[in-house]
Amino acid sequence: MAKTTGARLADFQYAGAAPGAPSVKRARRFDLAAIDPRAKPFSSGDKATDQAAVDALAGDIDRLQDVLFADRRFKVLVVLQGTDTSGKDGTIRGVFAKTSALGVRTAAWKAPTEEERAHDFLWRIHQKVPGAGEIVIFNRSHYEDILVPVIKGWITREETAQRFAHINAFEKLLAETGTVILKFMLHISKDEQRQRLQARLDDPTKHWKFAVGDLEERTRWDAYQAAYGEAVGATGTPWAPWTIVPADSKTHRNLMIATAVKQSLQALKLRYPPGDPALATIKVI
Q1: Minimal CA–CA distance to 136: which of 183, 85, 67?
Q2: Which residues are CB-neighbours of 231 under 8 A, at least 6 positions away?
Q3: Could you give phi then psi for residue 37, rounded to 5 degrees?
Q4: What is the DSSP letter of 143?
Q5: How many angstroms separate the CA atoms of 152 and 217, rounded?
Q6: Predicted TM-score (pTM) of this structure
Q7: Is residue 210 within 8 Å of 107, Cβ to Cβ?
Q8: Which of 185, 247, 255, 197 is nearest to 44 (CA)?
Q9: Residue 9 pairs with which residues in a beta bridge?
Q10: Which of 94, 115, 122, 243 is nearest to 182 (CA)?
Q11: Which helix (H) or strand (E) holds 94?
Q12: Within its chain, how far is the Cα of 269 from the centroid?
């Protein structure tokens, strides 16, 4: 498929977290406002063309996933993080619609259970990471544990910095044992969220997606944007960089993420395992 724009994924990635354990004093904050959520840097300018490109990329990802599963040298963890209505479910449907369920699974994270709260915050996460040859998609993720508790004041600044350090060490462990980590921050505007929430209210078939608490969380928009910026700044590392995805356009969101996933799989130089030479002489009768 011919490239239609000059956009580079690297222009939307952040891997500049300060080396060593993050601290309250050294914490960096990524400025999300520097990236326009309405932008469409990977778009051809035509929605139908962009959707056709997404469909083609989804097919490419399916074919690459088949080799990944057979190869079994690598694991792929896709993290989808963003505010309510940012498009995590839609990304999974659009980007991985053609991928075999044999080698892809999704983990959707909610508030921790009583048992999960009795352990460290990464205990439940580690149980769901991909095995050899798998792609696992996190719909929300361990980053909820340094967003909601921060906004609600449940943990201190020192505890927040400690959790950043734990996440960086955890992701480095995964990366050093064969896991490719693709973290996507789905960046939408406050007005786009308003429209999507209203659409859920206006459509009775989408009422199940709406919770009154969503409106309360919306009043904390600025606090969440600041918390996301701090999380990206503290945990965007060379082994697990963040990609900030302008996501007001659903089609562009899927196009950009599908492009990133395909490029990452291609970079692995995947291969089918060598066959048994003895099979060449076998005839099925």
Answers
A1: 183
A2: 143, 146, 147, 164
A3: -65, -15
A4: G
A5: 10
A6: 0.92
A7: no
A8: 255
A9: none
A10: 243
A11: helix 88-95
A12: 22
Distance CA 8, CA 142 (A): 27
Dig out the tokens for 225 from the structure.
């944007």
Give yes or no for a contact between 147 and 185, defined as CB atoms under 8 angstroms apart.
no
User: What does the alpha-carbon distance between residue 256 and residue 268 come to, in Å, rounded to a whole number?
Assistant: 19
**285 residues of the chain, pLDDT tens digit each:** 434 456 789 999 998 886 665 555 555 789 999 999 999 999 999 999 999 999 999 999 999 999 999 999 999 999 999 999 999 999 999 999 999 888 899 999 988 999 999 999 999 999 999 999 999 999 999 999 999 999 999 999 999 999 999 999 999 999 999 999 999 999 999 999 999 999 999 999 999 988 888 888 899 999 999 999 999 999 999 999 999 999 999 999 999 999 999 999 999 999 999 888 888 889 998
Q: What values do phi and psi take at 138, rounded to 5?
A: -90, 115
- CA distance linking residue 59 with residue 97, whole number of Å: 9
Identity of residue 68? L
Q: Say which DSSP state 240 is in.
A: B
**101-to-143, 178, 181 alpha-carbon distances in Å:** 25, 21, 20
Task: Give the position of tokens 């009154």.
Answer: 212
Amino acid at 257: I
Residue with the two structure tokens 């369920």: 101
Count of CB atoms within 10 A of residue 218's CB?
16
Q: Rounded to an integer, what distance in angstroms lies between the CA atom of residue 142 and that of residue 131? A: 18
The 8-class DSSP code of residue 261 comes to H
User: What domains are defined for the chain?
Assistant: 9-270 (3.40.50.300)
